Amino acid sequence: MALIETVNIGQRYGGQDVLEDVSLDIEAGEAFALIGPTGAGKTTLLRLLDLLEKPAAGSIRFDGRDVTANKSLRLEARRRMSFVLQKPVVFNMSVYDNVACGLKWRKQKEPVVRQRVNQALELAGMAQYAKRNARTLSGGETQRVAIARALAIAPQVLFLDEPTANLDPVSTAKIEEVLAHIIGEGKTTVVMATHNMSQGQRLAGRIGVIMNGRLLQLGSPGDIFSTPGNKEVAEFVGVDNILSGVIVNRDEELVTIDVNGALIQAISDYPIGAEVHVLIRPEDVTLALQKDNSSARNTFEGSIARTFLIGALVRVEVACGFPLFAVVTKRSAEDLNLAVNKKIYATFKATAVHIIKRWN
Predict the structure, then answer these.
(1) How far is Cα 90 from Cα 313, in angstroms, rounded to an integer?
(2) Average pLDDT, the chain
(3) Of 232, 180, 173, 299, which Cα lies nearest the Cα of 35?
(4) Model pLDDT for residues 255-284, shown as the tens digit of each residue
(5) Band of residue 359 on the pLDDT scale cut at 50, 70, 90
(6) What is the pLDDT of residues 163-220, one digit of tens each?
(7) For residue 78, which of 96, 60, 58 has the smallest C-alpha distance?
(8) What is the end-to-end Cα distance of the chain in Å, rounded?
(9) Residues facing residue 140 across a β-bridge
(10) Is 224 strand, coil or helix?
C-alpha cells in the first residue's frame, strides 16, 4: 500500500486550472522527484501532497486513509510531515534554537529536544554553527538549517521545494550530500520539486515530469531520460534530435523510418505506415572522418552546419538530409578538426533510437 496516493486531483486559482487530473502514488521510504519548468505546477502539487491546501478536484490518501476533507485526519497526517521552502525563513535567534522550534512547539522535554537538535545539526553539517545567529548565515547554510529543523521532528515525509535554487555549486553539492545521506538511510520518504533535471536524476529513485499542470510521465530516471513518453518530455529532458517520420518497412522488430527521404533503422513494435517521432540523444551519435565498418545500423554522410561550445563539450549540428546533433569532447573535436562545412560521417545504433507516436 502506498504511503501517499492521489486520485485525479486538480487545483484552481482565480478560476484558472493550475493542476489537472494528477494521479500518483509514493511508497514509504521512497525518494521521489517532480521535475518540470518554472510555473509547471510543481509547488502547487507539493502543497497539496503536504496537505497545506485542499484540492479543487480529486482525492488524497495518506497511509491508507482519505484525508481530502477530514480536518482531524489532515492535522494528524500533517504532524508526520515536514516542508522545506525554496526560500526558508529563519528566526532572529541561534541556529540551535531555530532547529529546536518544532520540537518545543510540540512540547517535547528538554533532553529529547537536545538529542534531536544535535542529531539534526550533525546530519546537516551545521553542528559548529549551533550558537551562531541564523540571520548571519549564507544562503546555503540557511537552507541546511531549514533541513535540520525539518528533520528534528523525525518526519515520516520530507517535502522540499527547489532545495538548491539560486545557490552556488559548492552549497548545492553540500545540500545534495545531506539529502543523499537521508535518502540512503531509507527511513524518511523524500519528495522534492526541482527544475534541475540532473539533481532529480542523481537523488531520486523515481521521477514525475509535470508540465502545464499535467503529470506527463512517471518512471525511473532511466525511463524518463532515455525513453521519454512524448515529444514535450523529450524536449524538456534534452533529447535534441526529434525527427518526424513514417515507418515504411519492418523485419520482425527492426523497422525502417523514412525521415525526409533518409532511412533510419530502429527497434519498435509500431506497424508500417505509423507516423512517429524519432528520438536520438546527441551523446549516442558518433562522428568520424571516414565511413567505418561498425555494427551500427545508421550511418549518414553530411557536413558540419554549426558547432557550439558547452563547458568541456562541443555540440555539433550535422546536415545530412535532416539536422542531426551530436556531442563530443573538446579533445575529440580538436582531433577531428571539426569546422563548418567539413565533411563528416554520423553514426548511431538502432538500439539508440527511441520511437514514439507522433503528436501533430
Answers:
(1) 40
(2) 91
(3) 232
(4) 999 998 999 999 998 999 999 999 999 999
(5) low
(6) 998 888 888 998 999 999 999 988 899 999 998 888 888 999 999 999 999 999 999 9
(7) 60
(8) 39
(9) none
(10) helix
Q: Is 247 left (phi over 0), alpha (psi -120 to 50) or beta?
A: beta
Nearest Cα to Cα of residue 76 among 89, 91, 66:
66
Q: Which residue, among 253, 282, 281, has the nearest Cα to 265 in the 3D structure?
A: 253
Contacts of 175 (CB under 8 A, 6+ apart): 140, 143, 144, 147, 163, 164, 167
3-state class (DSSP) for residue 351: helix
Name the helix (H) or strand (E) containing 114: helix 110-123
Question: What sign for the dihedral angle of Cα 27, 29, 30, 36?
Answer: positive
* CA–CA separation, 45 and 229 (whole Å): 21
| Grid cell at residue 42 | 510543481
Residue with cell 499535467: 214
Q: Which residues contact 225 (CB under 8 A, 6 or more apart)?
A: 197, 201, 237, 238
* DSSP label at residue 297: S
- Distance from the Cα of residue 19 to its chain's centroid: 18
